[in-house]
Design brief:
Helix content of chain A: 25-40%
Number of domains of chain A: 4
CATH class of the largest domain in chain B: Alpha Beta
Radius of gyration of chain A: 32 Å
Strand content of chain A: 5-15%
Distance between the termini of chain A: 55 Å
Low-confidence stretches of chain B: 1-14
Largest interface: A-B, 31 and 30 residues
Mean pLDDT of chain B: 87
Oligomer: heterodimer
CATH topology of the largest domain in chain A: Ribosomal Protein S5, domain 2
Number of helices of chain A: 20
CATH architecture of the largest domain in chain A: 2-Layer Sandwich
Low-confidence stretches of chain A: 1-28, 308-344, 662-676, 687-796
Shape of chain B: globular
Radius of gyration of chain B: 23 Å
Largest sheet of chain B: 6 strands, mixed
Mean pLDDT of chain A: 72
Number of strands of chain B: 17
């Protein structure tokens, strides 16, 4: 093992450094042994006292004795005892939660700073020699990002305090919400291993990075710094030598390259965990994160050893990766990076795995649009909150008027509405906020609830977008059909939200199982409590039978299907602090169903078309199958040259089915307009071998040299009517990723990347131009009729 | 069922006319193959015209008193998904028939099924799924080539029995139908003059009964001796062989044909087929139909006329009622007052009766009283 020489030397050093840290934890400068003795003595005395009191009074406790035990509970203490509330229920989940919190923070930070995220996740197995029966082991989780870094004075607060963060007090769409995550992970690590968090952060590219080690004091909810120095070691070079494949990638310059990580943060947490693949694993989390964040590049160095019994638990992860050999052959130089200005989803950007390192490449080169922070909408505010807001505003701006308060602290209250509200509670518009008492606030609250107000602004939401959804799915899921839809924002409890859905169908997905639902909230994958989630209910309630899929009543549809649902909101209503399921609000579920139905319709059109194509292929097969028999019989009766007759009939069969294909495409507008590849938000890949198995057939004694060939090649019925016939057949994609950006003309993009060898994309101007010139049609969901679509933010 | 196909035709016996007939059939088969080949080589779609054997293509010739086939024909196309396989099967059978004619042999329908049966090259599909498919194709070929089944060297299984005052020659063997014991002479499927010749006939009429059980009753009572007639049965719906034999007895020897059938839509339709031909074999009516055949019973009125007990009533179900109305509406029944009254009475009665119901009166009531009385009184339907 390459890392072994460095580890023993590093570990004792760390221990010596940390020795004072333990001492700091104690209340006085007592040795731990002494402290323990003292406290147990105190407890003995206390117990004795209580027993005596009980005997004296006949009561179990007195108010005084109880009062003596009542004291503050620090948030950290509470969560240290209730770690399951934060997602640390068991060693496996603890490992996942730690990775998740760190990655979420990294992505948030990168996006806020306008940096395309490049994140490296490293899990090291610190007890590789443990017995196989061990239920858990010590791991070190490290997450390195290329974000803006953290200024020195904030490090303790960010990593060392629970409920400290920038995201809780604002209504803005972000992954983190409460500011519990990373500090809770550090706390869990400290509790299970006694090791502090190690942080490297470089906020300024021209200055050395900070190296800080800190442990959290659960009693005070404060971090205690044990090491604080400066280092040039960022990104930490240690990770480059963890394994032979890591060294190889480092030599290629694709692993933690200093040029990619000029600023950034690296956090390492040692914890008791369990690394196991399958559902709810770190692998799955990162895969899903990569799908929902196609703009991020994520590298994952897996631990050398996987929990032994993972084989039975890895059931249906249905995403497939290139094997190492594949990737090496197809892509010897560097993992495919999107070219600058390339605005089409690439079909050749695929997740790949090489000897324990999983690379999730970047599929698009744009950051999600920056989101705005909004004021609360009056309809989403409760009476207590309103009173608190009044108080807060009074403190912040002494002497402010009620009129100004209403306008400043709420969204969607215009000056006119504000004066109307003031009139409504019989106050002048110049009345001071200080005069608002409880009764008045209650009146005001009622007025606000009944007021006719516009819905909250929606520029606070950043949808993933149809194009990026497709790019993400394309990257992570090997299917043949992809569709996505992004709904207009809607409102629950005065908070704006937006639902997006995408589906992938066919290809390498298994067809015998229930569909897989992958759920996201603000681009964060939700891995647990699926059936409690609103999105799951929406999937079950959608009638997939309408779209030619099997769908048992009250269950998930069955088929080679992956369903993705994303909820973007300034405040996602989770059912618990561990953020595992979205609460089931009617408004949310309704929007989810509408998004799913939109994707379903596209899939239905595709499946119908595919069935039609299959029938044509079968038809041709049928003719060709019988031609040999007919030739033999006819030739035996009248002595016609069998070879000539066979060829003549075969030519006719091919011509006739070709004519039929043609008619299909030109068979009036109905079929043409419903061509699934023409729809917005749809990508279809030509899956090799998806056509019906060809009947290969010879002709006995008259065997013609051009017996029917296997038609998996260029004669595979193409679902893309406009694909040039002489083109390499491997993988074509017709991506209509129009309307990803509002205001940008919807463009019919034809992503034709040739084979996945990473060759430069061949542009096909004539078909693309022809496509673009054609007026786009779309199905009006209300009337069911096709109507022209004006080029615009065409997410319908 | 004659499972093992056996060559029935005797080469030494083939007459000159038969040879001519074979040459004619052969040239028709070659024409068919030529049309397929020439169309294919010219780049046109090979087609075979097959006259329709449906009710809509059946014409009721009132003057001749028989059903005839219309001109409508369906095109069997190779490049039609529903017809491609049948087209292939038609070609296969055409070739099989050619081989049979060349070998001067005949095969049963089942034999033909096996003759054409093999796996389509390069697939696991068999050329014929079952014998029904094969039988259908052979009927198609008959109409399409304009050749009768026997001209194609194909025969069906034996069905029907004959006994009576007649001597025939069957492929050279003289057969005295007066000396056929209790079993009778089994009517072969091919009864054309080149196979069967009538040698000596004393009979004055033919009594055709529906089933062999009734036939057995008549034979045991020596009805044919007492009344000097020929006694035949067709085992339900009579086969082509039986019908052709009856037609020849009627046509060549001038014997009237009397039918004793059940009083139900099934019996009525058997009579209709004997008398004016069937829809599916309308193209052969010329050879098969016996326009002056007579229906002597059982009649709807017999329940009261013969004073039968309630026990013989077989209630008509919905299918029977529907079928009876359908038969009444056939053009060849529509203008016939007697039959309209007969069917109407049956429907009003609401029950059917089998010939065997007369046994409730007396074991030999039907042979000793019922039929003789009706014949004497000339009480029949035509």
């Amino acid at each position: 093992m390459d890392a072994s020489p460095s580890r023993p030397s590093a570990a004792p050093a760390a221990r010596t450094r940390r020795a004072p840290a333990h001492a700091d934890d104690a209340q006085a400068s007592l040795l731990p042994a002494e402290e323990e003795e003292l406290s147990s003595a105190k407890a003995r005395i206390e117990r004795k006292k209580r027993e005596l009191e009980k005997e004296a009074t006949g009561r179990r406790a007195t108010a005084e004795s109880m009062a003596s035990r009542q004291r503050d509970i620090s948030v950290s203490e509470f969560f240290a005892k209730n770690r399951h509330l934060l997602g640390f229920d068991n060693p496996r989940k603890a490992l996942l939660t730690t990775v998740k919190e760190a990655v979420d923070n990294s992505l948030d930070a990168c996006e806020e700073a306008g940096i395309l995220p490049d994140i490296t996740v490293i899990i090291e197995d610190l007890q590789p020699d443990r017995p196989a029966s061990a239920k858990s082991a010590r791991y070190r989780v490290s997450v390195v990002d290329n974000g803006p870094g953290i200024v020195r004075k904030q490090v303790e607060n960010v990593f060392g305090r629970l409920l400290y963060g920038s995201k809780f007090h604002r209504l803005k769409m972000s992954r983190g919400q409460q500011g519990i995550g990373i500090s809770a992970a550090g706390m869990y690590g400290l509790i299970t291993t006694g090791r502090p968090m190690v942080i490297h952060t470089r906020p300024d590219a021209r200055r050395p990075a900070h190296h800080i080690e800190l442990a959290m004091n659960t009693k005070t909810n404060r971090a205690e710094v044990t090491t604080d120095d400066e280092t040039e070691d960022f990104p930490p070079q240690r990770f480059l030598t963890l394994s032979s494949s890591a060294r190889r990638l480092a030599a290629e310059g694709t692993l933690l390259a200093s040029s990619d990580y000029v600023t950034g943060t690296s956090v390492s947490i040692e914890l008791e965990g369990r690394y196991q693949k399958g559902r709810g694993s770190v692998d799955e989390f990162l895969e899903l994160t990569a799908i929902a964040n196609p703009h991020a590049r994520i590298t994952f160095i897996t631990p050398s050893r996987v929990a032994d019994d993972d084989a039975d638990d890895t059931a249906p992860i249905r995403f497939t990766r290139n094997s190492a050999r594949d990737a090496a052959a197809a892509n010897p130089a560097a993992p495919a990076q999107p070219e600058p200005g390339d605005d089409k989803p690439r079909t050749d950007v695929k997740t790949e795995e090489r000897d324990g390192i999983i690379l999730f490449p970047r599929a698009v080169n744009e950051l999600p649009p920056e989101t705005k922070e909004i004021q609360p909408h009056p309809k989403g505010v409760e009476l207590g909150t309103l009173l608190q807001m009044v108080k807060d505003h009074e403190v912040a701006q002494p002497g402010a008027t009620l009129y100004n308060f209403l306008q400043d602290r709420f969204s969607r209250i215009s000056p006119a509405t504000a004066s109307k509200l003031c009139d409504g509670v019989k106050m002048s518009s110049r009345a001071k906020l200080g005069d608002v008492d409880h009764d008045l606030a209650e009146k005001l609250f009622k007025l606000l609830q009944d007021a006719d107000l516009p819905p909250p602004p929606t520029d606070c939401l950043a949808p993933i977008g149809v194009r990026q959804l497709l790019a993400g799915m394309l990257k992570g899921v090997r299917a043949e059909f992809y569709a996505a839809s992004s709904r207009e924002p809607a409102v629950y409890r005065g908070r704006p939200f937006l639902i997006e859905a995408a589906i992938a169908f066919g290809g390498e997905l298994s067809g015998d199982d229930s569909a897989r639902v992958i759920r996201f909230a603000n681009r964060v994958p939700l891995l647990f409590q699926q059936s409690a989630c609103s999105s799951f209910k929406a999937v079950v309630e959608t009638n997939w039978r309408n779209y030619d899929l099997q769908h048992p009543r009250g269950a998930l549809p069955v088929g080679p299907l992956v369903i993705m649902i994303h909820m973007a909101s300034v405040w996602v209503p989770f059912t618990s602090e561990s953020k595992e399921a979205i609460a089931d609000y009617d408004e949310i579920r309704k929007e989810m169903k509408l998004a799913l139905m939109e994707c379903g319709r596209k899939l239905g059109t595709y499946l119908k078309k595919r069935a039609r194509m299959r029938r044509e292929a079968e038809r041709r097969d049928v003719f060709e199958r019988y031609i040999g028999e007919i030739t033999k019989a006819v030739s035996a009766i009248n002595g016609t040259d069998a070879r000539k007759l066979y060829d003549a009939l075969l030519t006719q069969a091919k011509k006739r089915t070709a004519v039929a294909d043609l008619q299909l495409d030109e068979d009036g507008k109905a079929i043409k307009d419903e061509d699934p590849a023409d729809q917005d938000g749809v990508i279809i890949l030509d899956a090799p071998g998806s056509a019906a198995a060809p009947a290969s057939q010879g002709l006995g004694e008259v065997k013609p040299d051009r017996a029917i060939k296997s038609r998996s090649g260029d004669e595979t019925p193409s679902l893309l009517g406009d694909a040039p016939a002489d083109e390499p057949p491997a993988r074509r994609a017709n991506a209509k990723a129009s309307a990803a950006k509002p205001g940008k003309p919807a463009k019919a993009a034809k992503g034709d990347k040739g084979e996945k060898s990473g060759k430069p994309a061949k542009s096909e101007p004539p078909p693309a131009a022809a496509k673009a010139a054609k007026p786009k049609m779309r199905l009006d969901p209300k009337t069911g009729k096709l109507k022209p679509v004006d080029d615009g933010p065409g997410l319908f | 069922m004659a499972k093992k196909a056996a060559a029935a035709a005797n080469a030494s016996n083939v007459t000159k006319s038969v040879k001519e007939r074979d040459t004619r059939t052969m040239s028709r088969i070659v024409d068919l193959a030529d049309s397929v080949a020439s169309k294919a080589l010219a780049g046109r779609e090979p087609k075979v015209a097959i006259p329709l054997r449906t009710k809509s293509n059946t014409i009721w010739n009132r003057k001749r008193g028989m059903l005839e086939m219309g001109d409508a024909a369906a095109e069997r196309e190779l490049f039609n998904l529903n017809q491609a396989k049948q087209f292939m099967q038609t070609c296969l059978h055409a070739n099989s028939i050619k081989e049979l004619i060349e070998a001067e042999k005949t095969l049963s329908l089942r034999g033909m099924f096996y003759k054409g049966l093999h796996t389509v090259q390069g697939t696991k599909e068999k050329t014929f799924a079952d014998q029904d498919e094969s039988d259908g194709i052979l009927e198609d070929l008959e109409v399409s080539l304009g050749s009768l089944r026997e001209e194609l060297h194909i025969f069906a299984k034996k069905k029907g029995t004959m006994i009576g005052n007649i001597t025939i020659v069957d492929t050279g063997d003289e057969i005295d139908c007066r000396r056929m014991g209790s079993g009778g002479y089994a009517i072969p499927s091919i009864v054309e003059p080149d196979v069967i010749q009538f040698k000596k006939c004393d009979a004055k009429f033919v009594l055709h009964v529906e089933k062999d059980t009734v036939w057995g009753r008549f034979n045991e009572d020596k009805f044919w001796q007492k009344h000097n007639c020929i006694l035949t049965e067709g085992g339900g719906q009579p086969s082509r062989g039986v019908r052709r034999l009856l037609q020849r007895l009627n046509n060549e020897l001038g014997l009237p044909i009397y039918c004793l059938l059940d009083c139900d839509p099934w019996g009525h339709y058997i009579f209709s087929v004997i008398k004016q031909g069937s829809i599916s074999l309308a193209f052969e009516s010329n050879r098969l139909a016996i326009p002056d055949a007579k229906f002597i019973g059982i009649r709807s009125k017999d329940y009261t006329a013969c004073d039968l007990s309630d026990d013989v009533k077989v209630e008509m179900n919905d299918t029977d009622i529907k079928r009876a109305k359908e038969i009444a509406a056939y053009p060849w029944f529509l203008g016939h007052k007697g039959w309209q009254a007969e069917i109407d009475l049956m429907l009003r009665n609401g029950f059917k009766m089998e010939v065997e119901s007369l046994i409730t009166k007396d074991i030999s009531y039907v042979t000793e009283e019922y039929v003789p009385q009706r014949l004497k009184a000339k009480d029949w339907l035509v």
